[in-house]
Amino acid sequence: MRNDLYLQVMKKSYYTDNQAKVAQYAKALSNPVRVFILDFLIKNADKCCYSGDMAEELPIARSTLSEHLKELKKAGLIQGEINPPYIKYCINRENWAEAKALLGGFFER
Predict the structure, then answer these.
(1) Which helix (H) or strand (E) covers residue 46, if one does?
(2) Residue 46: is it exposed, middle or buried by C-beta count within 10 angstroms (0-12/13-18/19+)?
(3) How far apart are CA 101 and CA 82, in angstroms?
(4) CA 5 → CA 11, 12, 20, 21, 75, distances in Å?
(5) How sure is the predictor about 1, in pLDDT bands with cuts at 50, 70 and 90?
(6) Residue 105 pLDDT grade (very low, low, confident, very high; cuts 50, 70, 90)
């Protein structure tokens, strides 16, 4: 427990919230499959897409696709809606705008 508190104090001392968010978004973008997924969802922004639609476009197992979708959702870049037995995904527009602004600002330094 003491180590957790120490890490929280150290993190707050050295990193700003914006720096942590840049790292979070960058981590989500660190895999070409995830970049493909985001491109796919952006191109189909007028509608949400089922994971099965993306699975047909990618030469990866559905379980691998699921893991990538999970990472993008964890980073807040996408959101999912469950309609059993399907899950449809779309861009989280609010966080997408934030990521664009933060990453753009970071690269313009």
Answers:
(1) none
(2) exposed
(3) 29
(4) 10, 11, 18, 20, 23
(5) very low
(6) very high
Taking the CB of residue 37, how many other CB atoms lie within 10 A of it?
A: 25
pLDDT digits over 46-69, tens only? 777 888 889 898 999 999 999 999
Instruction: Quote the distance between the C-alpha of residue 22 and its chain's center.
Output: 12
Q: Mind listing the domains of the chain with CATH numbers?
A: 2-107 (1.10.10.10)
- Take residue 46 and report the two structure tokens written for it: 């007028």
Distance CA 1, CA 60 (A): 40
Count of other CB atoms within 10 angstroms of residue 88: 16
Beta carbons of 77 and 95 less than 8 angstroms apart? yes
